[in-house]
Amino acid sequence: MRADRDFAYGAAAGLLGDLLLGDPRRGHPVAAFGRVAGAVEKVLWRDHRGWGALHTAVCAGGAVAVGALAARVVRTSPAASVALTGAATWAVVGGTSLAREARGIGRALEAGDVEGARARLPHLCGRDPQALDADGIARAVVESVAENTSDAVVGALVWGAVGGVPGLVGFRAVNTLDAMVGHKSPKYRRYGWASARLDDMAGWPGSRLTAVLATVAGGDPRAAVRAWRTDAAQHPSPNAGPVEASFAGALGVRLGGTLSYGGRVEHRPVLNGAGRTVGTQDIEAAVRLSRRVGWLALGVCVAARRIVKGRTS
């Protein structure tokens, strides 16, 4: 029971800290993990799945071990346990940075500064900004807000509810490794395979919860459910599909279509084809929906943890 309270208070404090403070400009723990993972990669890299799996195991396993050790050290002190959970939650969620970047691009578009919006877009996603007009940039932002609501907020809370501090830091480690080596470039097609597959598995529950909560918290639940059911499975990502489709329906917009990553053109399925073209005003609507989903996810995760623990005790 005490562990449930520690998670509830700590996770709430961490989300509040993210809301008020955002990410630190320097010395971010996730950035430090990225540097360590990069150093490990320099030692282990081979164009082989086995070496990539070892890289994933060393980095993700090491992060979980550090989290478990820290939790063990403070287990006898409720205050210290809450503080550690709060610090870990604040370190691994990124809702405020996500909202800040999205709104910054939105302000540039509202001012007619398309070049300024293009310059800021790489801070949010990996699209080729020069290939996008104002509506294309707005669509990219809304899709990124949807996907990162799951990756940067809800997924972490889900695994925090399951595994406490080790779950929080482990999920962020897996997600970071996928961003570093999980893409299908020639260098990482084999080496990053394990990180990409592990990220798909770790992200599954958070993405589905995000889709459910977007449906509940959005403006058009029926359209969100319809888009999720009819369009999500066609998306190349098993986790981004449900999230982006439910956001599209909830916001009444049309997502997906042709896009470009690193000079590679992709023709993705249209999500919520009955919706309207994304406009600049939809960026703020997506950010607000993302915020509602994040806080609802906290409530769901806290409640689910108490119910499960109560039944097993």
Helix tally equals: 11
Strand order of the largest sheet: 2-1-3
SSE ordering: HHHHHHHHHHEEEH
The percentage helix is over 70%
Mean pLDDT: 93
Work out the strand percent.
Answer: 5-15%
Q: Which shape, going by the Cα principal axes? A: globular
Give the strand tally: 3
> What would you call the structural class?
mainly alpha
Description of the molecule:
This protein is mostly helical. Helix content is 73%, strand content 6%. It contains 11 helices and 3 strands, in the order ααααααααααβββα. It has helices spanning 2-21, 29-44, 49-73, 78-92, 95-110, 114-120, 134-181, 193-217, 221-231, 240-251, 281-312; strands spanning 253-261, 264-271, 276-277. A 3-stranded mixed beta sheet has the order 2-1-3. A hairpin with a 2-residue loop joins strand 1 and strand 2 (264-271). Helix 4 packs across helix 7 (134-181), helix 5 runs antiparallel to helix 7 and helix 9 (221-231) runs antiparallel to helix 10. The longest helix has 48 residues, at 134-181. The model has no long low-confidence stretch (mean pLDDT 93).
What topology does this entry show?
Elements: H1 2-21, H2 29-44, H3 49-73, H4 78-92, H5 95-110, H6 114-120, H7 134-181, H8 193-217, H9 221-231, H10 240-251, E1 253-261, E2 264-271, E3 276-277, H11 281-312
Parallel strand pairs: 1-3
Antiparallel strand pairs: 1-2
